[in-house]
Amino acid sequence: RFAPDQRILAAGSDRDRFAGFHREAANDFAQLSMAFRFSLAAVLKYREALELREFVALEKVQQEIARLEAQIHEAEQDRCAKEQRRGQELTRGMRSRHLQEALDQELAIERYRDVLTKKQEELALKRQELLKAYEESRRKRELLEKLRDRKLGEYTHEQAKAEQATIDDVFLSRRKPTQ
Question: Of 16-25, 65-74, 130-139, 151-160, which range is least confident?
Fold first, then answer.
């Protein structure tokens, strides 16, 4: 029934190899189809959340500082306007009671401006602390991202090697044996 040069292959790798199918190639193909999974993905996501939280806190302080600067500027303009009005009224003649009230108003504005300036200085210190915390959290996140990128590069390289090995095995298995 069979020609002398034909043979029945036993179940296993020889039969599969002769038919152009390699178990190793199938395993390699299964590995090729697996998606990249970074084992520290949860930590990276946590670091990103921390960085965002630090950034938001820093932005809030920045906005508060800007608001205080606007209030200081407004108080200074108000004080200058009152001082100018007082000077004009002095040239026209003004009662001492009105003069005292004008001076008290100017002093109250100056005290208010000083309080705002002190708050601004405190917030500037807090801003520096938050900036350091933000930079530290960003550095830690970037470190994990670099690690992930390196692992992805290694994974891609291994996938390319496995794919090339599969291609080589398929090519060699389909090649007719020469005697």
Answer: 16-25
162-166 contacts at long range (C-beta below 8 A, 24 or more positions apart): 162/28, 162/31, 162/32, 163/28, 163/32, 165/24, 165/25, 165/28, 166/25, 166/28, 166/29, 166/32
C-beta atoms surrounding 174 within 10 Å? 8
Burial 16-54 (b: 16+ CB within 10 A, else e): bbeeeebeebeebeeeeeeeeebeeeeebeebeebbeeb
For the chain, give percent helix, strand, coil, nearest 5. 85, 0, 15
How many angstroms separate the most distant Cα atoms in the chain?
135
| Residue 62, burial from CB neighbour count under 10 angstroms (0-12, 13-18, 19+) | middle
Q: Is the pTM of this model over 0.85?
A: no
